[in-house]
Amino acid sequence: MLMDYLITFGVGGLICVVGQILIDKTSMTPARILVVFVTAGVVLSTLGLYEPLVEFAGAGATIPLTGFGHTLAQGAIEGAREHGLLGALFGGLNAAAAGISAAVIFGYLNAVIFSARTKP
Amino acid sequence: MDFRQDTDKRNQAAYAAMVKQASPNSPILLNCLKAFLVGGIICCIGQFIGQLARGPLEMDAKLAGSFTSVVMVFIGATLTGVGIYDRIGTWAGAGSAVPITGFANSMVSPAIEFNREGLILGTGAKIFTIAGPVITCGVTASLVAGIIELIRMRLGG
Fold first, then answer.
1. For the complex shown, is ipTM > 0.85?
2. What residues make up the domain containing B100?
3. Does the CB of A56 have a partner CB in chain B at under 8 Å?
4. Dihedral sign, CA of B96, B97, B102, B108?
5. Cα nearest neighbour of A48 on chain B
6. CB contacts < 8 Å between A and B, how many?
7. How close A52 comes to chain B (CA, Å)?
8. 0.90 cut: is pTM over it?
9. How many domains does chain B have?
10. DSSP state of A115
């Protein structure tokens, strides 16, 4: 149990360190980092490299945005198996629907409720 | 993480120059340690929510994953709304930007500034400043993943 959390902490932290190195060493903005991470997640998942990491680290692999890419890729692959080309088209968003819906709805509500404030 | 720089392209170069001047010798090692700590903690919170979903809430693995995403996104969006997440972001850098809570932050943070331009074309549009490219690239790449699977099946893999 404690070991699970240590692995989650270590792997999740290391994935974030990769992002930090990209921010510090290149002129990539955080927005680009997010795009690169999601796309990298899709690629790694398609190559079958991400699933073992999820089995090993659980939320340490699924919570970073690479895990979001993994969800998209596995959804599209599953869709392709069940419904062919049509499934490959909608399978990705289908699998990621909960996260994206929540982000749009909670994001919009929060942005509307809280007026613009001076940022730190 | 502060996403405002992405909303104003003209100021991007000036902003980058300013940041460079303000932090002449960026302590990369320290930044990485901060990112590691905060990123690790956020993932552990996700792990806890996932175990809660699979255990006491009796969800299957797939539903538990969705549940975890929804709760984490809710936390990220709300903490951004009340102004806490961006404060964490200035300290943690990628540690708070890379987890899915950072994805929620990237939607609320630009949108909250554009309330005055209206709730539909202001907030409603700006919410996708960063999430738009992320979803576009992710979904397009997922179609490629699906097509590769189709080819693999056709080849009898």
1. yes
2. 4-129
3. no
4. positive
5. B145
6. 301
7. 16
8. no
9. 1
10. P
